[in-house]
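Final report, closing paragraph on structural work. Over the funding period we assembled a curated collection of sequence-structure pairs, and we close with a single example.
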Amino acid sequence: MKTSKSTRFLPLLLLLLISACSTKTEMVGFARAIRIPEHTCKKRFNETICEPERCQHQCTKREPFGVGKCNGNMCVCSYYCKLPPM
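Its predicted structure, as stored:
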């Protein structure tokens, strides 16, 4: 039985795509990119001095897929919430 070139090409393309996104940071980056903007919630934590690494750690400790960024002395944690904020 003969297989067409496109039938052999699709699994190879899928394997290539998976191997290109094999690192954890790239997969997390991809997960962030597909968020629905209406379902993004934010929490703010007041800090004396906001350090980016500490802010990210606090954010992921409270929200598993949260992203922490410093804004002045404030740590802003954005994360996916099931219901959009009112």
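The first strand starts at residue 40 and ends at 46. Residues 36 and 52 are 24 Å apart (CA to CA). We thank the funder for supporting this effort.
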